[in-house]
Amino acid sequence: MSLSDIAIRLDAPTPADAAALDAMALASWHDTFAQFYHPDDLAAFLDQAFGEQGALRRGLHDPAITWQVARAGDEIVGYAKLTPPWLDQAGPDDAQLSQLYVATDWHGRGVAPALMEWALATARARRAPALLLTVFEKNARAIRFYDRYGFDHVGDYAFPVGRQIDRDLIMRLAL
């Protein structure tokens, strides 16, 4: 049986998933973005975002964040998280997709669309008027993905990675 033959299932992560989720997210982030950064800036960001004291694991315990993980068998192959909106372009009732990551080996296998459909359905169930997200301007694959769903570029966000400040696109989809 090939990996593509394994059914993907979505569910909420548990505290027992913290290490595996963190490792998958770190590898995905590194594979996608490491080439854009000086090693010192990269290390500073990764230390803040991942690991036992990192933002990802702290977020697992935040009741304001709604998570969904994609699993293939026992392996976490992707995740998405909805947070209260914090972007200036967001209205108070809007939803914000703060992260949608897919393990590199699982790109193109339907994981991202499954997670996006979960995010859209969850936002609509909450009666959010819009779903907002940010995406690094150099992440062409992700931008194309969001474009297919009809997201519009509505502003920019300065995203720090160590001392480097990146331009993230703020994208919005009216629900």
How would you describe the overall organization of this protein?
With 175 residues, the protein is α+β, with helices and mostly antiparallel strands. It is built from five helices and seven strands; from the N terminus they run βαααβββαβαββ. Strands 1-2-3-4-5-7-6 form a seven-stranded mixed beta sheet. The longest helix is centred in the N-terminal third of the chain and has 16 residues, at 18-33. The protein is globular. The termini are far apart.
Produce a short descriptive summary.
The chain is an alpha+beta fold. It has 5 helices and 7 strands; from the N terminus they run βαααβββαβαββ. Helices cover 33% and strands 32% of the residues.
What's the helix count? 5
Helix content: 25-40%
Going by helix content, strand content and strand pairing, the class is alpha+beta
Kindly report the spatial arrangement of strands forming the biggest sheet: 1-2-3-4-5-7-6
Radius of gyration: 16 Å
Choose one word for the global shape. Answer: globular
Distance N to C terminus: 39 Å
Which runs of at least 5 residues are low in confidence (pLDDT < 50)?
none
What assembly state would you assign to the polypeptide chains in this entry?
single chain
What average pLDDT do the residues reach?
A: 94
Taking the sheet with the most strands, its summary is: 7 strands, mixed
Q: What is the percentage of strand-forming residues?
A: 25-35%
The total of beta strands comes to 7
Give the H and E element order. Answer: EHHHEEEHEHEE
